[in-house]
Amino acid sequence: MLVLRLLLVLSALIIVLSGGMYLLTRKHTYLRFAWNVLRFIALLVLVFGVLFLLERYVLVGWGILL
């Protein structure tokens, strides 16, 4: 979980810095980059959430049956 938190903090920093660079330069490349980082992080959090639910309910339930 520590790695996930570190990744979330770093991605938030990247998004804020990209937004700041857009405000300074008015290049849409920075906004596009921030949007891509946001989509990637959302997908990664969704995958980790599904894996957490899988571990929490399915595998623990399977252990009870055995």
Keywords:
66 residues; mainly alpha; 2 helices; 0% strand
Describe this structure in words.
- The chain has 66 residues and is an all-alpha fold.
- The protein has one domain (2-65).
- The protein is built from 2 helices and no strands.
- The protein has helices at residues 2-25, 28-65.
- The longest helix has 38 residues, at 28-65.
- The two termini are 28 Å apart.
Question: In a few lines, what is going on in this structure?
Answer:
This protein has 66 residues and is an all-alpha fold. It has 2 helices and no strands.
Tally of distinct domains: 1
Overall pLDDT, averaged?
91
Helix tally?
2
Strand % is: under 5%
CA radius of gyration: 18 Å
**SS class:** mainly alpha
Cα(first) to Cα(last) distance is 28 Å
Which blocks of ≥5 consecutive residues have pLDDT under 50? none
The coarse overall form would be elongated
Counting DSSP E segments of at least 2 residues, the number of strands comes to 0
Describe the sheet with the most strands.
none
Name the helicity range.
over 70%
Helix and strand run: HH
